[in-house]
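Take a minute with the sequence and fold tokens given here and flag any structure token that looks odd. Thanks in advance.
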Amino acid sequence: MASGYGGSAARGQPDASPPRQVRPEGRRWTCGPGALPLRCRAVHVRPLTRRARRGVNGIIHWGWAKVRFFGAIAPGTAAADRFGSFGEGSVIAFPTATLYGERQIHIGAETMVSTWATLAAGYVPEQKTVPPRALVIGDRCVIGMRSGIVAHESIEIGDDVWFGQDVFVTDANHGYADPVTPVGRQLGPHLPVSIAAGAWIGHGTVVLPGARIGRNAVVAAGSVVRGDIPDHAVVAGVPARIIRQLVPGEGWVRADRMDDEVRALSRTIAPDGLAGALAELEAMTETRGGLTPSDPTPTIGSP
């Protein structure tokens, strides 16, 4: 025979565990330090508390959006005037990570640098020996979030180059030849870096001093690039090696020639042409009440 809260009759002791409570809407349970469950009590959560939290949360997000908007570096701002040149339509999103040596940094038109990025020229902000064009970024580039570009002598990034996130590019590194001096105190030579127009640099890539990346090259995520990468090459690995390359008259050929697969060339649909084709389709739908199987499909770029 049971007694108490389901305790054993043989023991004659009630079970200290209370029956299961269903948590009422709008309540929470509070217990004093070291209290038995029997001493817990339900406390009403006031609707005002919820409304206040919701309101404060909204204000914080609204304020942060305004801070990011007004903190961005764009033409006409005092921060942009500190750069060697800052093209129209370009923006450096706020907040940044590290930004110094602006007078030796040049940014083209319609380029976007995402948040938490580092752009630096020289070892320290006070350095007077940095070349006047230590870091040059072309037009219509995209520098991904948390990327870092640190120039000491020359880093040139061509037009229409896109970075993924967490990309790091530098033209100087630490040495290790002296076994006594800490590596962090050994400075290696400055070797110019160039990334030609149209290249894509994948997420987490590291571009080492002396690297030269060709036009429309593709660097896979996580690669470490050193040396020369030819035009129209796909590279990957640590260190990065050519995976595929455009061969005139053949197509995209594997570098190791281990198979006969050759990827044919394909042209990208231009945004203007795509917009025109969609407008034509919409016009046909409106005038005819929908397309029929006999209707010809509009051709991109057709007159």
Remarks:
- The longest strand covers residues 241-247.
- The CA atoms of residues 175 and 188 lie 5 Å apart.
- Residues 72-239 form a domain with the UDP N-Acetylglucosamine Acyltransferase; domain 1 fold (CATH 2.160.10.10).
- The helical segments are 47-71, 78-81, 271-288.
